[in-house]
Design brief:
Blueprint (H helix, E strand, L loop, with lengths): L1 E6 L5 E5 L29 H19 L16 E4 L4 E4 L2 E3 L4 H22 L2 H6 L1 H17 L2 H9 L4 H26 L5 H9 L5 H21 L1 H7 L2 H8 L6 E4 L1 H4 L6 H6 L12 H4 L20 H13 L6 E4 L1 H10 L36 H23 L3 E7 L6 E2 L5 E11 L5 E8 L5 E4 L9 E6 L3 E11 L8 E10 L5 E9 L7
Antiparallel strand pairs: 1-2, 3-4, 4-5, 6-7, 8-10, 9-10, 10-14, 11-13, 11-15, 12-14, 15-16
This protein binds iron/sulfur cluster (2 copies).
The site of one iron/sulfur cluster has 13 residues, from α14.
C-alpha cells in the first residue's frame, strides 16, 4: 500500500492511496469460471457499516436464540415458541399451530417472501444480498474473526504471503478452529428448531440424540465453513441464482449502488498538477478506498456489475475520503438509473462527448449545482412497487383473516365401499362410514356427532351391541385425531333417491366450535319412495 499519494488542488497530501486492483474488473473479467484470487477486504466504517452491524446482530440473534424462546400452550403441547415437530407433523409459531392439511399457510408465507423480494429488489435493488442474505451475514461474521486474529487488510496480506512460521500456524489454526465452531453452532441451532431445544442439547452432548441430528449438524457445519470461510464471494458470483434473477427485476427507478462519474470523472490523483495543465478534474482521487473495502473484490467505478451485492461499504469508504477532501459526500451513492442518466446529461456526457465536471459545480461557490437530480420518495412509491406491496399485503391480510376464522375442530368422512348399504331386518337401511375428527386445540374436548338433512336418521357406533341414537358423544385427546367407524340408519320412506346427500355435524360441548361435512346415503333403487 502506498500512503499519502493523493494530493488536493493545493498540492497537499490528503488521502491514502491503496495499491489494489479489483480481482474481478471490466478489464480482466473472465467469460466463465476463473480460479479464485484472494480478497482481503479492509474494514469499513460509516453509516452503512453500522447499519450492517445492526442487521447482522439482529439476524444472527434471531437465528441462534429463537429456539430458546418459550410459549405456554398448556400441558399437552410443546412450550417452544417456534418449532417444526416432524414426529407429530405440527408447526408451532408462537400462538399459531399449523397442521399438515393447513400447509397452505406455509405456502402463503413462502409466496409472501417471494413477492417481498420482488418488492425490495424493485425499490432498493439487491438489499437482500447486501444486508440479510445468510451468505452475506455469515461471511461478515467470519471476517470479524479473521480480522480479530490476523488483523486488517495489510496485516492479512502480509501474513498470507509470509513463509510458514509458528506465529502464522497458530493464527491460521485459531482462525479455522473458530470458523469450525461457528459452523457447528450454526448447524446445531438449525436442529433445535425441530425438537425441544434444551432437551436436544442435553441429548446431543451425551451422544443420545438421533443420528440424523449429528448428520445434519455435520453437513451444515461443513457448508457454513466452506461457504462462509473459504468460498465467500464465489458463492454469490458462481453459485447463487439470485444475481441473475434480480437483473430482470431491476428497472430504471430501482436504487442501486452507483459511482456518480458525472462528478467523479476525469479521476486524478494529483488535482493541482492536472489543473495547472488545464485538464478537467473530477472528484474521484483514484485512491481505491472503495475497492479495498469491497467484499466482492470489484471496482464500482466500472459500473453496475452482477457481482455487486449492494452492501454499500464502498459508499462509506468514499464518503470518508470526500469528507477528508472537503467535498460533498455521495460520489458513490444509492441512485436510480434515471437520476444517473439525467445527471450525466447535465455533465455534458454523451456517446461522443466526455464528462465535464465543471458543469455540475457552481463556479462561484464550487458547490454541486441544484439542478442535480437526487433520489426522492417517488423512486420507491410508484405503480410497480405499489402493485407488489398490495399483492404482498393482500396475501398477508387474507392469511390473518383465515387464521382468525379457522375452526379448531375438523371432520372428514369416508363412505364404506363395500357393502354400500345393508338392509336390516326391521326394513331400515344402514350405511357405514369412517369418520376422522381432529381436535386442533392443545386441550381435551368433548364433542357430539349428529346427522342433519336425513329425516328420522339415527347414528350408532360400529360396535355390534351399539343402539341407534340421535347423536354420539366422543372425548377427544388434546391436539389429536380421533378415528372411528359409525353406522347411519334411515327408513326407506325418508329417502328421495338412491343417493341422498346429508350432513354430519360435530359440535364441541363448550359451544365454541361446530363443523360440518357432506356425506351420501346409499339405498337400493326399489326402496326409495
Ligand atoms: S461495489 Fe460497493 S456495494 Fe458493490 S459489493 Fe463492492 S462494496 Fe458492496
Ligand atoms: S470513488 Fe471515492 S473511494 Fe473510490 S477511488 Fe474514487 S475517491 Fe477513492
Amino acid at each position: 500500500m502506498t500512503l499519502s499519494d493523493v494530493t488536493d488542488q493545493d498540492g497537499h497530501a490528503t488521502a491514502e492511496r491503496f495499491s489494489v486492483e479489483a480481482v474481478n474488473s471490466k478489464k480482466i473479467r473472465q467469460p466463465l469460471y476463473a480460479a479464485r484470487r484472494k480478497i482481503f477486504p479492509k474494514r469499513a466504517s460509516g453509516t452503512f457499516r453500522r447499519f450492517k452491524w445492526l442487521v447482522m446482530l439482529l439476524t444472527l440473534g434471531i437465528y441462534y436464540l429463537t429456539p430458546f424462546l418459550r410459549w405456554d400452550r398448556g400441558p399437552f403441547a410443546p412450550d417452544q415458541a417456534v418449532m417444526i415437530d416432524l414426529a407429530n407433523r405440527r408447526f408451532y409459531f408462537f400462538f399459531i399451530e399449523i397442521w399438515p392439511q393447513e400447509f397452505y399457510y406455509v405456502a402463503g408465507l413462502l409466496i409472501m417472501a417471494g413477492v417481498g423480494l420482488f418488492l425490495i429488489t424493485s425499490t432498493v435493488g439487491r438489499a437482500w444480498c447486501g444486508y440479510t442474505c445468510p451468505q452475506t451475514v455469515w461471511v461478515d461474521l467470519f471476517l470479524v474473526v479473521e480480522r480479530a486474529i490476523e488483523g486488517d487488510r495489510n496485516a492479512r496480506i502480509k501474513l498470507d504471503s509470509a513463509p510458514w512460521s509458528l506465529d502464522k500456524a497458530v493464527k491460521r489454526v485459531a482462525k479455522h478452529a473458530i470458523w469450525l465452531v461457528i459452523g457447528v453452532v450454526t448447524g446445531g441451532a438449525w436442529i433445535l428448531y425441530f425438537a425441544d431445544a434444551p432437551t436436544l442439547i442435553r441429548n446431543f452432548s451425551q451422544f443420545e440424540a438421533p443420528s440424523v441430528a449429528y448428520i445434519t449438524v455435520g453437513i451444515l457445519a461443513a457448508t457454513t465453513y466452506v461457504f462462509g470461510g473459504l468460498m465467500r464471494e464465489q458463492v454469490c458470483t458462481y453459485m447463487c441464482p439470485w444475481p441473475r434473477i434480480q437483473a430482470a427485476m431491476l428497472d430504471e427507478h430501482s436504487l442501486t449502488v452507483t459511482y456518480n462519474d458525472w462528478r467523479g470523472e476525469p479521476r486524478t490523483r494529483h488535482a493541482k498538477k492536472a489543473i495547472a495543465e488545464g485538464r478537467p478534474v473530477g472528484d474521484c482521487v483514484d485512491c481505491n478506498a472503495c475497492v479495498v473495502v469491497c467484499p466482492m473484490g470489484i471496482d464500482i467505478r466500472d459500473g453496475q456489475q452482477l457481482e455487486c451485492i449492494t452492501c454499500a461499504l464502498c459508499i462509506d469508504a468514499c464518503d470518508g475520503v470526500m469528507t477528508k477532501l472537503g467535498h460533498e459526500r455521495g460520489l458513490i451513492s444509492y441512485a436510480t438509473l434515471n437520476d444517473y442518466n439525467a445527471n450525466m446529461v447535465l455533465a455534458g456526457a454523451s456517446a461522443t462527448t466526455p464528462i465535464e465536471p465543471a458543469r455540475v459545480r457552481d463556479p462561484a461557490t464550487g458547490k454541486l449545482v441544484d439542478a442535480i437530480r437526487h433520489t426522492t420518495w417517488r423512486s420507491i412509491v410508484r405503480p410497480r412497487t405499489l402493485v407488489y406491496f398490495l399483492v404482498w399485503a393482500g396475501i398477508g391480510v387474507a392469511m390473518l383473516v383465515a387464521l382468525s376464522l379457522r375452526a379448531t375442530i375438523e371432520v372428514s368422512v369416508l363412505h364404506d365401499r363395500n357393502p354400500q348399504y345393508v338392509l336390516l331386518s326391521d326394513g331400515s337401511i344402514r350405511n357405514g362410514y369412517k369418520v376422522k375428527i381432529s381436535n386442533m386445540r392443545p386441550e381435551p374436548r368433548t364433542v357430539t356427532l349428529s346427522v342433519e338433512g336425513l329425516p328420522g336418521a339415527a347414528l350408532a357406533s360400529a360396535d355390534a351391541a351399539a343402539q341407534p341414537v340421535a347423536s354420539l358423544t366422543y372425548e377427544l385427546q388434546p391436539d389429536a385425531v380421533l378415528e372411528t367407524r359409525i353406522f347411519v340408519r334411515a327408513a326407506p320412506g325418508a329417502l328421495a333417491s338412491t343417493n341422498t346427500d346429508f350432513t354430519l355435524a360435530v359440535a364441541s360441548a363448550d359451544g365454541t366450535a361446530t363443523v360440518m361435512t357432506d356425506a351420501k346415503f346409499e339405498a337400493p333403487k326399489e326402496m326409495r319412495k
